[in-house]
Amino acid sequence: MSGIIEQYKAIWGDDPRQLLDGYTYQPVLTRKLDALDPAALNAELFYEIVLWKLNRFPHVDPALLAELREVAKIAPGHHEQARPVLRRLLQTEGIALPMASTILRFLNPQAFQIIDDRVYRVIFPDRHKYPAKPAKLNERYLDKSATIYFEYLDELHKHASDKLPFSEADRILYLLDIKLDNKIGGKPKPRPQ
Description:
By secondary structure, this protein is mostly helical. It has helices spanning 3-7, 9-12, 27-34, 43-54, 62-71, 83-90, 97-107, 117-123, 139-159, 169-179.
């Protein structure tokens, strides 16, 4: 027997493979990738492998995808109509508010923008950060996250103009925060007067 097998015999007995009964990491995707035919590798499978390693692979219900297609029809300023789909996104494993807002933004940049630490800090310099996704989801988190996101969009609309178009506000304000030399997780530097 190999030295390592003997060394940890008290943990796994005579069969190290019995530990695999407790392996629950990304179970659906793990089964799919374990059965992968390398000849079938395409960009989608490549990204799934990367997301598996990052533990960021979202398991998305096909019905949610259909609902997301409808987001493209929401008119600017009517973002509250997306509350049900936003809540469903937030209930999806691997998707917190920044990722949910990113999905919405790419589907309809006229109605939605990405919320992240940098832009949120520029828009709401005196507020604490939006809530982190808890291990165990609850209604309070879902309601609070949706409310904060829609307040954030309302505030972006207030600041939007020809010089700061709403559809580009997330990117412009993200870069502004970098130019202000703010650090992720830090407090914002005083605004110039």
